[in-house]
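The protein record filed here.
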Amino acid sequence: MSYVVIGADRLGNIIHMLEEKLDGKLIHVSGRKKKDQAYELPQMVKGVIVFTDFINHNLAKRVKADAKKRNVPIVFAKRSVHHLECTLEQMMNCTNMECDRACARKSLF
């Protein structure tokens, strides 16, 4: 199983944090090249992380619709380690049955 990271030209320190927190291969797509506009999520994807600071809007819409159709969890975050950590923790902690947020009804990371 793999995780897809979309957005940002370079991941920098974020790659180390993602490797620690997530159990799987990371696939990075910058989202700014013309060929990235035709990108489709792989079949065996466990989750999608979208960096909202550096991404084409049409690609973000397509990836969001594809993830929703496949029932794959998707996280939108700024390109900072702290913001991404907070967003991932909220998604991971929202797995209890009493939570009424939409992310609780999906199988999360």
